[in-house]
């Protein structure tokens, strides 16, 4: 009989999480106590976060997130109020990007720097400071490399593609999650999602998702993979509300995390 072997470590809030394998069975431990077990490592790790998250004082689960969203948008994703407040301007930005810098052409062509800069400026998803710093990238000698790398990451997200983006953006202090996830989110919202770190970490904590502990500001592909898993899990939990794409899921995360209780408006 083999001794227990630790497969993975992590934290969720103040709790220490550990995934242990023994004789083909996986055990999820929180602060040294077994919470879940099973024969699939990823499933046990996910369920460990689900269970551990419930002890966080900010936790309200996916049902609580849904209730919070519906408090502000009682008619859900397919309503005039939601479209006006959250969706329409992002769809307009996508259409502008698709027209001025099509994805395939951007991956292989040149001269799209100004069009991409305009796309970044067309929403409020990035801060004014981030947009200002991007001018140096998109009006400088690395503009074509950045646009091509961003398009290639959109088409085939990978660790190497993300590394290329990081290398190009670091000299201008633009190697940020907001910068690298914005274009994929607009080019292919059916596949990608925009990452606003603080509000997304808060949301992940509230629903008990591993992203809350996996996140790091550095451009680590494991973070992006976890973000996509968070998107997929949220989409599954909201299936009856019929979210259309990553625009709806990103908006949902933003609403749950940023809209405050004192906000009086209800958007129908």
Structure notes:
It contains 13 helices and 4 strands. It has 268 residues and is α+β, with helices and mostly antiparallel strands. It has 2 domains: 5-53; 59-268, no CATH class. The protein has a 4-stranded antiparallel sheet with strand order 1-2-3-4. The mean pLDDT is 91.
Q: What are its keywords?
A:
single chain, 268 residues, alpha+beta, 57% helix
Summarize the structure.
This protein is an alpha+beta fold.
Task: Please give the share of residues in helix.
Answer: 55-70%
- Tell the overall outline: globular
Unreliable spans are: none
Give the neighbour order of strands across the main sheet: 1-2-3-4
Q: Which class best fits the helix and strand makeup?
A: alpha+beta
Domain module tally: 2
Sketch the major β-sheet: 4 strands, antiparallel
How much is the average pLDDT?
91
Number of strands: 4
Radius of gyration: 20 Å
The topology string of helices and strands comes to: EEEEHHHHHHHHHHHHH
Percentage of residues in strands: 5-15%
N/C terminus separation: 61 Å
How many helices? The count is: 13
Task: Present the secondary structure layout.
Layout: E1 5-12, E2 15-22, E3 25-30, E4 33-38, H1 41-53, H2 61-72, H3 80-100, H4 103-108, H5 113-121, H6 128-138, H7 143-155, H8 159-169, H9 177-187, H10 197-207, H11 211-214, H12 221-237, H13 246-258
Antiparallel strand pairs: 1-2, 2-3, 3-4
């Amino acid at each position: 009989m083999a001794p227990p072997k630790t497969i993975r470590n992590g934290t969720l809030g103040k709790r220490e999480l550990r995934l242990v394998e023994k004789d083909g069975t996986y055990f999820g431990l929180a602060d040294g106590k077994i919470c879940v077990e099973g024969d699939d490592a990823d499933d046990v790790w996910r369920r460990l976060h689900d269970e551990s998250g419930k002890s966080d004082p900010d936790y309200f689960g996916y049902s609580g997130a849904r209730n919070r969203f519906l408090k502000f948008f009682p008619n859900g994703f397919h309503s005039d109020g939601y479209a006006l407040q959250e969706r329409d301007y992002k769809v307009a930005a996508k259409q502008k990007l698709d027209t001025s810098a099509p994805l395939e052409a951007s991956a292989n062509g040149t001269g799209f720097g100004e069009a991409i800069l305009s796309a970044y400026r067309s929403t409020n998803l990035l801060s004014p400071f981030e947009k200002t710093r991007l001018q140096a990238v998109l009006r400088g000698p690395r503009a074509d490399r950045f646009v091509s790398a961003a398009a290639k990451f959109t088409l085939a997200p990978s660790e190497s593609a993300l590394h290329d983006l990081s290398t190009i953006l670091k000299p201008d202090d633009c190697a940020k999650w907001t910068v690298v996830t914005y274009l994929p989110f607009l080019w292919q919202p059916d596949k990608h999602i925009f990452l606003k770190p603080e509000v997304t970490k808060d949301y992940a904590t509230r629903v008990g998702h591993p992203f809350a502990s996996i996140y790091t500001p550095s451009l680590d592909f494991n973070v992006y993979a976890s973000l996509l898993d968070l998107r997929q899990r949220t989409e599954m939990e909201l299936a009856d509300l019929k979210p259309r794409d990553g625009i709806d899921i990103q908006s949902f995360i933003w609403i749950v995390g940023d809209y405050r209780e004192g906000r009086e408006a209800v958007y129908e």
